[in-house]
Amino acid sequence: MAYQIDLQGKVALITGASSGLGAQFAKTLSKAGATVVLAARRFDRLEALEREITLAGGKAYCVGLDVTDTNSIESLVSNTLSKVPQIDILVNNSGVSSTQRIVDVTPKDYDYVFNTNTRGAFFVGQALGKYMIERAKVAQDAGNPAPAQRIINIASVAGLKVLSQISTYCMSKAAVIHMTQAMALEWGRYGINVNAICPGYIETEINAEHWQTELGKKLIQKLPRKRVGQASDLDGVLLLLASEQSGFMNGSIISADDGLVIT
Question: What percentage of residues in the chain have a pLDDT greater than 90?
Fold first, then answer.
């Protein structure tokens, strides 16, 4: 008998869903049966993805979100709940990077990375945490078990292993890893499982051209199996963490990097 993860009846909110990993995460969760809510700044891209998912037989909705804007984050839960009955899963995915040597990093460079990757991820997680805690308390007060709720933070292998010329990115993602475990520690009692995925080098539309350059090809030759991953290579770990099959996983930090972190 085949084993299948079924997310029918679940609602997943994905930040940074307008492109790259976020778009892939949304399509993967939809294929598993979840209703997906797509959040990002580029609303036209979200609408195109919503149409793609809908044409494939899924259910998708769009909400605008700028994770560097506190007001935008504060309205995220209410905007989402205006379209769906509940939120079961958060994929906390928004992220940016900046490439330069440490001596060349300016305050603007630093803030650009940390305001999205760390501050933005923290306050999005906080907003959904408040909602999920209240939902759990309502269930518990009624004598029912807390619903299975999931927060999946997208960190990076760069949060586990320092990589050259992306110091601020490494630092920001290391903070996301500790944030994940702090949230898991405080919120586990409410049936909220908080885990993190640490991808390695993944080809997306943003960096696809880089892998064809001389520098990109040199980097590939330094990787453990001399290849970069595809966004779909994260599907398995994403589905596991989104499902009830990960009920005993809380505060887990999972590398999906083709072995880079151990080299």
Answer: 96
Amino acid sitting at position 155: A
Q: Tokens 């499902």, residue? A: 243
Chain position carrying tokens 């935008």: 72
User: Which secondary-structure segment (H or E) carries 107?
Assistant: helix 107-114
CA geometry: angle at 12 spanning 255 and 48, to 5°?
Answer: 100
Q: Could you report how far apart the first and last alpha carbons of the chain are, in Å?
A: 38
Residue 1 is predicted with a pLDDT of: 66
Q: Is 201 a catalytic residue?
A: no
Name every residue whose Cβ is closer than 8 Å to that of residue 170 and which is 6 or more positions away in sequence. 156, 158, 159, 162, 163
How long a stretch of residues is the chain? 263
pLDDT tens digits, one per residue of 96-143 = 999 999 999 999 999 999 999 999 999 999 999 999 999 999 999 999
Tokens 């999205």: give the residue: 116
Residue whose structure tokens are 């972190």: 261
Instruction: Classify each residue of 11-35 as buried b or exposed e, where b means 16 or more C-beta atoms within 10 Å of its C-beta.
Output: bbbbbbbbbbbbbbbbbbbbbbebb
Which of 233, 176, 162, 182 lies closest to 204 in space, CA to CA? 233
Q: Is CATH 1.10.1740.10 correct for 11-257?
A: no
Q: What is the pTM of this model?
A: 0.97
Query: Catalytic pick from 3, 61, 112, 169?
Result: 169
- Packing angle between helix 167-187 and helix 121-141, nearest 10 degrees? 10
The ranges assigned to domains in the chain are 11-257
Residue 118: closest CA among 184, 172, 68? 172
